[in-house]
Amino acid sequence: MDARLNYFADPTAGKALKHFMAAGKTLQDSPLPASTQELVALRVSQINGCAACIDMHTKEAAAAGESSVRLNLVVAWREATVFTDAERAALALAEEGTRVADAGEGVSDEVWELVAKHYDEEQLATLVILVSFMNAANRLNIIARQPAGNYQVGQFH
């Protein structure tokens, strides 16, 4: 399977993606724990059905030391006992922030208050931008039908 578009071969798309990827690197370098970032990125990608991003974030998380048990349970995090309260709050924000059309109100006050108990303002801002970033990345890959399975750890760093 080949992607419909090669974004990096197009001058305009290539320039835009260079800035987009720089924004992603800025998020990675933030004080939000890397494990939380990978779990959130994975959950957003699962909800959106972005195989390329699921491939990438599963491999990146595993390379960073995340266990296969936790990675396999992200899809059912509410019933899993392997996540901290802070991670659970971040995953709840990721879900409501991704399913804005389904929720009607977007992110509920309940979820916002929960996540705000665990993260400071800079981490909260990073979480919100990360959820938005991942939704955009998912859409870029889904629209172009980016194939999954061949991602190499560190490929876009």
From TrEMBL:
The keyword Mitochondrion does not apply. One of its GO terms (molecular function) is peroxiredoxin activity. This is Alkylhydroperoxidase. Keywords: Oxidoreductase, Peroxidase. It holds the Pfam family CMD. SUPFAM superfamilies: AhpD-like (SSF69118). Gene3D superfamilies: AhpD-like. Signal peptide: none annotated. It comes from Streptomyces noursei (Streptomyces albulus). The keyword Cytoplasm does not apply. Residues 15-96 form the Carboxymuconolactone decarboxylase-like domain. InterPro entries: AhpD-like, AhpD_core, CMD-like.
